[in-house]
DNA sequence: TCGATTGTCTAGCAGTGCTAGGATCGGGTC
DNA sequence: GACCCGATCCTAGCACTGCTAGACAATCGA
């Protein structure tokens, strides 16, 4: 039995290696550079090995997305916990926004995997993977309370999130000049959130 | 001379055909299906002909983006002109938002060409092509007046636009359920615009 | 009518995601 | 310890991608 267990461990370890390498390569050179050949070479296995772990490249992107969603949720919670304890809603929402945009800025490839690319994942449905639901939950925890009366907290969170997403993607794609990000965040928080 | 002129006309006509066909194919089957071979086959020329008009696939996407940006600007202006004449800012901003999201919804491939894909175009710079500048100008014309005092109209337009962009992309990518779009728009307009 | 130029196509390159089928290695059994 | 068999992995190849070199033909000016 212990032999099989060891093999299972090694397999799981290799799977982690694949995901981590794909992510690293994507952050270094963009997702276009993440080809099955390059990825296989980096993990020092042949191409078909990838397909014994994942159905295809899409599923590898999906795996990176799930990992990233968990980190995003953690980053958001970490950033908001301080202001949350101090009972300052304005500071909390500002901290959330900054943390979100910082994550998108510092992990562009991962952010793309979560929100732009097709990772074969279900969103906004019952069978949505847990990390994705939890990432939204992290936003909801912080934003739900500033929705204002008469406004559904989930819907408010969606709108606020969409705004942040728009800022993140347009800025990174060069559609918005990056200098005024802080001012834009302030405007968004002041107007959207009901304190 | 007239011979050369005729040839030039035919060339320009063929270029329009390429762009229109690329756009049509992209809307029908997605940009992934727009390969140089398929495109060449549809216009009934060989592949290299494409490269006598454009540097590569990227430039073809860029051409579709420019065409689309002009249409988006026109759509926005058309939608806002009525409420503008009536002097109703709230209705005007709502009309703009609906028109923008409707354009994204009805021309997903074109919208991607403008805002998601790499068409080799410069954004938010001096050498930004005129149609792109004009599309932003169309938004600015309508949104600048509801920025609120002390808020730069350009910056406000950027933020509002980013919010719409976030809603458009997240909805279409299945990240947001499409049912509540109207409610989201209402929330966005009520909160962001200063009337 | 001839030469040159312009225009177009065939064929091919290097790269992509993905897979069939053969080789090899190791564990379990006699 | 020797053997077999199954799991594991790799080589080689498929059909496709964007893009281009060079051959070919058609057309224009002299």
TrEMBL record, chains A, B:
Report which superkingdom the organism of origin falls in.
Answer: Bacteria
What the entry lists under PROSITE patterns is as follows: HTH_TETR_2 (PS50977)
Keyword Transcription regulation belongs to the record: yes
Q: Pfam families recorded for this chain?
A: TetR_C_33, TetR_N
Q: Which residues bind DNA?
A: 35-54
Q: Does the keyword Transcription apply?
A: yes
Q: Which UniProt keywords apply?
A: DNA-binding, Transcription, Transcription regulation
| Residue ranges constituting the HTH tetR-type domain according to the UniProt record | 12-72
Matching PANTHER family, A to Z? HTH-TYPE TRANSCRIPTIONAL REGULATOR BETI, HTH-TYPE TRANSCRIPTIONAL REGULATOR RUTR
Q: What is this protein called?
A: TetR/AcrR family transcriptional regulator
The record lists the organism as Streptomyces kunmingensis
Q: What is the lineage of its organism?
A: Bacteria, Bacillati, Actinomycetota, Actinomycetes, Kitasatosporales
